[in-house]
Design brief:
CATH superfamily of the largest domain: Cell division protein FtsQ/DivIB
Number of strands: 12
CATH architecture of the largest domain: 3-Layer(aba) Sandwich
Order of helices and strands: HEHHEEEEEEHHEEEHEE
Largest sheet: 6 strands, mixed
Strand order of the largest sheet: 7-8-9-10-11-12
Shape: elongated
Number of helices: 6
Length: about 240
């Protein structure tokens, strides 16, 4: 084989390799384009069901209506942020998570607000629930028996009162019917038996709960645990 023939063969091999690489790139691009079309534009991966999880007091239909997702929308093109915003605007909903359940299910997971206290409604008769963040939701006509009634004077006092109730252990919380706060450091609880508890601020909640629990057998009219290392009782029975 002459030098010229070797050069021509090398050139032909290189040219063939180049065409193969070009062909591979074309095929890869076509596959990517096909995948994009299938995922984003075709009817193969579209929403056929909006599944709602976590809804108890809020109806699943209300969540679906707020989500406002049309059946047939490509799953990849669903506006997740929009759904979170719309469903999150339901007063009873505290958090929203949206998941794509391939190939055709959109899952909306809601976390409902947990009532800590109940307060009188300001714009209508009845009451509203208030969660740990101070958000009002879920208007009710009759005062619930198992949630303390809040009366607070100012935002600082209200926040402190909510924090106090939220910190109570279940055995003490079951005894509380009302919570009143005139300042952030003057939270007073009313117990079902009629006694009152001067709790003070929301600080040292665990210690105050421990002291109150130990004092309850005294049967006093007033328990003062605002300074938990120096608690007092008033009107104790003999």
């Amino acid at each position: 084989m002459t030098v010229i023939e070797s050069a021509e063969r090398f050139t032909e091999t290189a040219r063939r390799g180049t065409w193969l690489r070009v062909l591979a790139l074309v095929v890869a691009a076509a596959l990517v384009a096909a995948a994009v079309w299938v995922v984003w534009f075709s009817s193969l991966l579209t929403v056929t069901e909006v599944r709602v999880l976590g809804a108890v007091d809020v109806s699943a239909d209300a969540v679906r209506q707020s989500a406002d997702v049309e059946v047939g929308t490509p799953l990849a093109r669903v506006d997740v942020d929009g759904i979170v915003g719309r469903v999150g605007s339901i007063p009873e909903v505290g958090a929203v998570e949206v998941r794509r359940g391939w190939p055709d299910v959109l899952v909306v997971v809601v976390t409902e607000r947990t009532p800590v206290v109940v307060a009188k409604a300001t714009d209508s008769p009845g009451y509203v629930y208030v969660d740990a963040a101070g958000v009002r939701f879920g208007a009710v006509g009759v005062r619930p028996r198992n949630v303390p009634l809040l009366r607070a004077y100012g935002s600082d006092a209200r926040g402190s009162a909510i924090a106090v109730v939220d910190s109570l252990p279940p055995d003490l919380l079951r005894r509380v019917t009302d919570v009143v706060a005139r300042t952030r450091d003057d939270v007073v609880l009313t117990l079902r038996a009629g006694a009152t508890v001067r709790w003070g601020s929301a600080e040292r909640a665990d210690r105050k709960a421990q002291v109150l629990r130990s004092l309850l057998p005294v049967g006093a009219e007033v328990y003062d645990v605002s300074a938990p290392d120096l608690p007092t009782t008033t009107g104790a029975s003999d």
